[in-house]
Write the structure tokens for this entry.
Amino acid sequence: MNLLPDWARALLRLPRVPLVEDLTVRPAGHLLTRTIRWAMAPPPKPS
């Protein structure tokens, strides 16, 4: 939500809450991205 322009934020009626976004939304996004990368990684090669 932090990347949305002001006009889109107004259309969606999303409030601007920078402290909450910095403390919760960004870490959750990073965690979700890492989880997806982990799940889609190729299986290890057998030795």
